[in-house]
Amino acid sequence: MANSKILFVTSEAYPLIKTGGLGDVAGSLPVALKAQRNDVRIIMPAYRDAMRKAEKLGFVSFHMEGVPETVRLLEGRLPGTTVKLLLVDSPAHFDRPGGPYCDPDGRDWADNAERFATFCRVVMAVALNKAQLNWQPDVVHCNDWQSGLVPALLAPHPNRPATIFTIHNLAYHGHFDSSKFQTLNLPHYLWGMQGLEFHSGLSFIKGGLVFADMISTVSPTYAEEIRTPHFGHGLDGLLNHRADRLQGILNGIDYKQWNPANDPHLKHHFDSHKLDGKAKNKTELQKQFGLPQQADTPLLGLVGRLVEQKGIDLVLEIIPQLVELGAQLVVLGTGDKGFQAALEAAATKYPQQIAAHIGFSEALAHQIEAGADMFLMPSRFEPCGLNQIYSLCYGTAPIVRHTGGLADTVIDACDENIAQGKASGFQFEHASAIELLQACKRAISIYRQQPKTWKKIITTGMKQDFSWKQSAKHYLKLYQTAQQLSGKQ
Ligand code: ADP
Questions:
Q1: SS3 of 131, please?
Q2: Within 6 Å (CB) of ligand 1, which residues are found?
Q3: Could you tell me if 438 and 472 lie in one domain?
Q4: 224 is in which domain, residue-wise?
Q5: What would the pLDDT profile of 137-167 be if each residue is shown by its tens digit?
């Protein structure tokens, strides 16, 4: 399908604002779709921080149907790309310090329901060509709960575009008290179990799951997992009901941002044929984190949100054993205050081997990917996961749990896969500290005792193609299916 008009709806997009994988996807998939000759526009809230980074913004709309007069629409480009960007400027909701979802103390904004309902109403006006843009998309691609009301609000409109809803993480529902349903002045037909009601509350994500023409999630394995009670967060029944509309499409990565051969965050560049730059980055990383600069010491890295989902508790549990094994560990992340404190305490207790940086740093994330030998990702669930893919590209063997996108991207270094030259990392089955430790031991043992095999494992990962090209084609097919189905639900 070429020359489609696509409205890509997102609550974050790199490089304007990013808290996790959705930001990376929104900063790169639209670019790949545009490269395949489609007319793509990203629409996102005009957060204060994003406004500062956006270039050449101009007001394009002052009156949008169903939207208060105080809300305006700005147009510009996603920095570093030619993709058009629409920013929903509602100062009362988005012009404030702090993150897109949380205040500076890490608490959810109390008015998140109002903030994202306003965002969704503007998206609806654009989708129905009622925002003075003289442009109507063929497809509206929504992402996560913040855009969940869009498919629901659009559903009854006869001339609406097709709707897609992508689940980047089913754990986040956008769940609010039922009273918000009235406050937000949502149409009556949307209440009830067949609508936005979930356990007597209001669920934004249900808007996407119930009403979108097609649903996708970010890896084939996660698409299967979320249909089971263990991974379904109470929505597995609904997802099974809509199973014929659900697909898994693996995320790609943006090689302009993540390529060890020319990454601007690195002092030394390298590729699968010339790995000496990687060793130099390791020394830099050790220096930066105040660890002894030992080339032969296995250095493990971890970057991510410090939450239970990511198995941080499992990592904390095995720190004494990693220390005993003579390994080093560097961690970069923010999240749960308890995990942050425990990691800092471990770094104080083992200053020669453990180091933690609590915070968000794009540069440091790249430097850890480049300098570490192994990357820990023992997630309890992982819709796709990008860090293990970055690790594969940067010659840093991922040690991952066999779940979601981790299962789809990392090939375990068992004897058979090593013999066939397919192995690219280390997997373990259950979310247990013992299994994680065993996987680390396997990795460390090969790293120390079989350098040739180690090199083969990391270069196998580095040579894989994770570009968006293929995935963008899958999305275009999905859009086509959604267009065929729209209006015929
Ligand atoms: P999730 O979306 O669940 O957070 P992903 O692995 O899909 O996990 O994506 C996480 C993205 O956020 C990656 O690009 C990762 O490098 C980045 N990231 C997470 N935490 C930090 C941090 N503290 N500093 C810099 N980048 C981070």
A1: coil
A2: 20-21, 24, 169, 303-305, 332-334, 360-362, 365, 384-387
A3: no
A4: 5-252+468-486
A5: 999 999 999 999 999 999 999 999 999 999 9
